[in-house]
Every structure is written in C-alpha cells, then in structure tokens.
Amino acid sequence: MYKKLSCSESILPRAYALPKIHKLNCPFRLIILSIDSPLYALATFIHDITQGMEVTRYLLKGTRFEIEHVLLDVVSLFTNIPIDLTIESIDKKWNFVRDKINISKDEFMLGVRLVLNSTYFSFDGQFYKQNFGTLVGSPLSPIVSDLVLNSLHDRLKFILEFDDDKINFLDITIINPYRTIYNFYHKPTYSGRYLNFFSSHPLSQKRGIIIGMTDRAFKYHPKNFEHIISTLLKNDYPIDLIFNTSNARLKILIKSCDASYVRQTRRKLKIRLAEHRNHINRNNNNQSVITEHRTEFEHDFDWENVAILDEECFLNKRLISQCIHILMQQNSLNLRSDTEGVHQTYVQLLKDIK
C-alpha cells in the first residue's frame, strides 16, 4: 500500500477552462487537472473504497411517468458539495467498507479529510484555493457527490424542467409517457462533424465510426439511419464503405437474435397465436415477454413457422414437457420462474445434452 500511495515526483493541480458554447453568454467550466498531483493516488484509493458504500436507499425501479416528464439538473454540482456533509456521510457508511481495507477508521477518515480539504491549484502562474466544494477533476468528486446528492443543503440546487410528452437526456430524446420511445437528440451546437475519412487514422477506426452510429440507430430508432448516411457522406465517407460496413452489422444484429419462446396451451394454436399478435399491437402496460422483446428490439416474430414440440392431454405432463423444452433452448425468452420447479440435477443433465 505504501508504494501505491507514495508520491516522490509530483506537480500542483493545474486549472483550465472549457467554454459552454451552447449556453447564453458562453460561460466557462473550470476543470482542475489532478493527475500527477501529490494526493492523486490517495484520492484514487479512497474513490475505489467508497464505491462499495450504499449511495441511497430511496431508489425507484420500474416506474413510469404518469402525466409528464420531469428533468432535474443540478446547478454546478461539484463546486457546491458541502465538505462537512460529505465527511459525515462517509463516516456513517464506514461499515460498508470496513472489511475491504487493513487500516483503521480514523486513518481512513484522516485521508478523506486531507483530500477533500486540499483544493489548491495553479492557473497562469498563480496559486489559488477553492473555497467551497470539491475539485472538478478529482477522482473522488463523482462518488462523494452521489453520497450527498439526496441531502438537504442550501448549496445543493436544482433546475426543474417539465414537458408533456418528451424530454431530452444526454444525447437521446425520450418520448411518450405511456410507451417509452427513444430518438436521437442533438444540442443546438451539434455540427455533424465526425472523424473525416481523409484523415490519417487507420481504416479500422473509420469502420468503427460507422458501426457505432449504426448500432445507436437501431438501439434508439431505425428511422435515424438516413440521417446517419447523410452525416457520413458529409464527412467524406464513400457510399460503398458505408453500406458494406452497415449491412454487415445489420446481419449480425438480425442473425444474432435467435431467441425463442415456449409455452404450453390446451387451446387451438391459431387462436393462441392471434392472442399474442393482438397483445403486441395493443402495447398495453401488462406486457408479456414476447411484447417486451418486440417493443425493445423491434424484432418481428416468425408466426408462420411456429413449431409444435409436443402433444399431451394432461396438464402436469404438458408443464413438464414445457420445462424441458425451455431448458433445451439456446436463447430463451421465458422467465426464470417458468423452470423453477425443475430440480438442479435435471437442469445440469439437460445442459449436458444440449
């Protein structure tokens, strides 16, 4: 640990600024470059340890917006984090990490205080100290911000935005409160500039640009494929390279979906298939695994080639047969609860046979 945390040759953190050209009057974001600073190794060590701490118990999962979307944006987060509140939060959550390190709580908290209170940096040959908050650029800032973000403090302020049917988050637009649809979102400063084809970079990186953009189009919304082609052409990519690369990627995306679904039924096959089709078209809140897969990946099911795997008039025997066929699938859409009744011995046996 001594060799990991010791520092023999170091420099004071340096400050530089990045303009926020998408905002009014073009304010600057101050960044403190902490790499190679005296406490950088210690800050990284504390960051790795505090990652094991519980951030918050108040986590909503699987919810949806009933009427309108709400976006909460923090005002200048890192520079408004209360140091005292941060130290108190880490102290309370010591039990989450006490078994991960071989130092005492007092020694660990001493290191935390040393890093959080050392907010010195240099700029244009002058030396400064940040009066409040943590440094933008310190390895410890992101994790401590998560620890105190749900606390009440005068310095923690939010911008609240409402929208009836869509909201912009990072580089996507989330549409419709009742069925989530994703689309590309570009800030007003978006120029459409990517790595130009005539640059000296290797061809593999240029193919990677095409593959990455194609993946995003099909992950969020396929209609953006035309926009991707137009953008790549403006960056001098040959049309043949675009289609050869994207078509190869399309085959992977489509062929890689070998998912299947097994379900027993005592009803006529055509009636059960019609129910599945209608369920997909309704897109209601009580979605089956088939509807969820169709909604998320936009994959069409081959309804004309549905296979009857077994025939049995008794329910219990049909359920046993269903479990066996589910376990024999390579990529199953069935829920884990569909095979919970099968003993682990048989599960392993079926895996070996498969």
TrEMBL record:
PANTHER family reported for this sequence: REVERSE TRANSCRIPTASE, REVERSE TRANSCRIPTASE DOMAIN-CONTAINING PROTEIN
Organism listed in the record: Trachymyrmex cornetzi
Protein name: Helix-turn-helix domain-containing protein
Domain Helix-turn-helix, first and last residues per copy: 193-246
Record InterPro entries: HTH_animal (IPR058912)
